[in-house]
Design goal:
The chain is an alpha/beta fold. The protein is built from twelve helices and five strands.
Amino acid sequence: MENRVIYIASADAGWLNMVAAGMASIFEEIQFTTVNDVQGLWHLPSSALVIYDKASLGNPTALLINPRERGGKWLIVNADSLDEESVPGLISLGFSGLIVKNQTLERMPRAIRTLTANELWFSRHAMSLSLKQNFNLSSQPTNAIHVLSAKYNLSVREQQVFLCLVQGQANKDIALAMNLSPSTIKCHVAVILQKTGKQGRSQVSALLLEDALECVI
């Protein structure tokens, strides 16, 4: 394994020091650098790796952190199980891996080896969901939808309803297509509005346009 730098980013000082010491004892040839935030991590070389502690730093997509712009490889750790449903969006943004909270310490060494070998590290379940969603959304603007789903932590079912909303479908039509009750669809729509901070269906549909404008800017 060639010499390289791995940044461990966390606002939890105790966790940060423990992980840095543990990883340094396993990978003696790697330089581990600890940071309390990622504000200074820009223009990273392709060999650099950032381990991002979601539990203390928050959702990286909501903070508009884009690995493709910052460089290097980014591994999200201490993630929630729901985050695995947002893997297509994370991959679109350039993230290279994700480990859920109860598996972080156990799987981090293997993840580091995998990422430094220029491979991705996502669970089989997450990649399966990603492939299914790509097939289901093959004729839609999948990149924008995946990114928005990751940004707002939408579940798989909420992503499906979100896509229907963007297409302008009514609740009864969505319920029929998804074989669910209209009341269930109404609940999903309410959750989507709450997560996205929008007031109505038309504003939800406008999210794709807003995302495109952000990319241009």
